[in-house]
User: Fold this.
Amino acid sequence: ADAGFGAGIDCWAVNFIIIHSLPSFMTISNVILDFDGTLTDVFAEGQAFTVAYRALFAEEFGVREDSLIMLADSLKQQIEADPTKGWTYDGQIIAPATADPMIATTVIYDEIFYLLQQDKLQWSHKPLPSTTEAANNLFRKLFHEAYAVPRKTIFRPGAKEFLDKVVDKYTTVIVTNSDERAVIEKVARLGNRFGN
Assistant:
């Protein structure tokens, strides 16, 4: 595991579980995979996302990036130590903050947004979204824009071989909360049979 965050699922371990460990009475017809962290090394890729998200947040709200860096570092330590912190969707935590760097970044900047709303930072800033829906839409936009910033995709060791085996045997679907077009392009880099 990487320091501060849990590790993603090892492709070879998933391969073994899917193909070799089922009781004889069970069959598999479909395989559904998450993309980030299952097929890619999000810990190696996460820094570029964090830098892009911070820049977008600073521009959107008119705050200084150097101030964000210091506050985000402080909040990261607090959030990592609090198991009740996580990525919230429709009022429910759907993933722990420590699941991967992209989720950690969004949780940290949600907290910074809350501090701006409560005027606890005493920073000058642009007007904030006035409704929860507007804020959610804005944060979704920031996530997708930061995710779409070009960066090197680092596939987990064995990702191509794993997909080769799974796609040959099963109907396989990759799901993501990330930008679908970006994920399709990344998967296509593993070979033309994976790009659709």
